[in-house]
Amino acid sequence: MRFSFLRVGGGLTALSALALLTGIVSVPTALAQDTSTQQNTQQQAAAGQGTKNWKDRAEYDLYVKITQTTDPKARLELLKTWTDKYPQTDYSQDRTQAYMVTLNQLAANDPAARQQLLDKAQEALKADPANFTADYYITTWGPAVGGANPSPDLLNQVDAAAHGMLDNLDKQFAADKKPGALGVDQWTQAKTVATALAHNTLAWVDTSKKDIPGAEEQYKQSLTADPTQVKVSVAYGKLLIDQKQYAPGLFEYARAGSYDGKGALPDATKTQLMNYFNTVYGQYHGSDAGKDQVIAQAKTSALPPDGFAIEGVGDIEKAKADALNQRMASDPAFKMWYTIETNLTGDNGDQFFNSTVKDAEIPGGAEGVKDFTGTVISIDPPDRPTKVVLAVQDPQTADATLLFSQPLPAAALDKIKVGQTLQFSGVADSYQKTPFMLTFKDPTVVGVQTAAPAKKPVPRRRRG
Questions:
Q1: Does residue 452 form part of some domain?
Q2: Cβ contacts of residue 328 below 8 Å, gap of 6+?
Q3: Same domain for 196 and 92?
Q4: SS3 178
Q5: What share of the chain is helix, strand, coil (3-state, %, to 5)?
Q6: Which domain, by its residues, includes 282?
Q7: Rounded to whole angstroms, how far apart are CA atoms 388 and 442?
Q8: How many domains in the chain?
Q9: Where does 309-390 have alpha helices with state H?
Q10: In a domain, 180, yes or no
Q11: 69-98: pLDDT as tens digits
Q12: How large is the C-alpha radius of gyration of the chain?
């Protein structure tokens, strides 16, 4: 009596598609897809197809027992028995496929099964180089077997398998290949999962080879394929932070810590990630400014937008220094004011004030500068002011006080108003280091007639 067995193909079966979607595998179902009878054999012969036969009834009975065994450990022993008793069989490829599915079930809790699975997958690829299921298992478990120090041979195997998956995705997930048990959305999702898996594994390969740009690109491709992979965002973020690419790295941590859609991490894990993000962001940027905007962007996108940047403290300070230098180069009056302030707020401020600034008319025409310019911050009292506070360096920060021994006339209030700019010069009377304030007594204000008589310039003191 002859028995025929419909081949479990090298391509992705419905079983494997479900494995991609759920991680749940049912080997007996895979093996028992068809227990074809003599009629099936005759149909194959009529179609010109080669037939496959059991060696004897005992081999067929062993096969039936395997299909009925749900425990993967027990099934693995039966497969070994099949191999021992029938090393040569018409169903060698089908048996290898069954080995892979069974070992995949055991691999999660049995590290030894992982290497056996890779060996069987390689065996399957020798018989059928386009075996998508074999590529899938190598791509899935290769990184777990290799760990942090994979051998070059394993890296090559995994690299080839992952690329094999990517090269055959369109063919493997063509609409006419969809198993009837799966909906269109499930079939599409299976392709998405397979795509992301292949790119994630290639990122591991590139990282192991110290090809960081390559790993970055693979992570980007993976997150583009499936933006819900927040664990991948964490891995990608760590890679970037390790390379001191803080802006995109922080974005990925913000993504994983704030994302609350499908596949979101547990709340406790998200809290840890956000705590890390908050700490590193503050250290890198120097403040929390802009942090909320980064989180809002990351919550809706797995990858930062083009041109995304977070300025580091060094960048911010450099930009400030560049702007300051440009301002001093273009504004001699500001340069003089900044020089005076820097000296007065330094360690020898009192000495500098007493020897150079106190009772001196400043700017006094030094370096061609006749007046300082400041923005009016306050007038006191409002109707007949004797005190006007100005901001010279920063329009929002008071740093100069003009004191008048006589109230300013009413006409002066047309030009001395809060928010307006004034040009002034005068004799420095006192200063305060923190917050900085330089006070002038009865100064001259350009275009404003003060009640106090005009003063003659006092020569600037020279040290030494």
A1: no
A2: 334, 335, 338
A3: yes
A4: coil
A5: 55, 10, 35
A6: 227-312
A7: 11
A8: 3
A9: 313-330, 332-344, 349-352
A10: yes
A11: 999 999 999 999 999 999 999 999 999 999
A12: 39
